Amino acid sequence: NRPHVSIFLRNDLDRLNGKDYMSSKMCYPIFTQADTTSIGIDELQLLLLKNALLLGVDFRLGVGFEDAEVIIDSKNSKPRWKCKVSYDEKAAAKYNVEAGICFQTFDVLMGCDGARSRVRESQPQ
Known about the structure:
By secondary structure, the protein is of the alpha+beta class. The protein has helices at about 5-15, 20, 25-30, 40-55, 90-95, 120; strands at about 65-70, 80-85, 100-105. The protein has a 3-stranded antiparallel sheet. Strand 1 and strand 2 (about 80-85) form a beta hairpin. The mean pLDDT is about 80.
């Protein structure tokens, strides 16, 4: 699937170092003529992943989100998220935790799992 990219999104991709982090074959349909600008979903995911890794985001494969609740730090009123997560056997061995359900606290909680996001549904409106 190659959705058409509007001008402002094309400029955002350029600001995310799209020309530097993508191969020349991937860059051609994005950064050439405005009327033919398109990007594949896989190419966009790869570009976003590379930028997130440069920012120090910790991706943990084999870990599933179950639920979360907001906890407020009493010292500085900073919100954090206490998440109920599940580890499979391989991920548990890699991250030195027990397999199954456990609780972890995070500074940021993002759900990148589509329109019916379990993260969004778990948070109060």
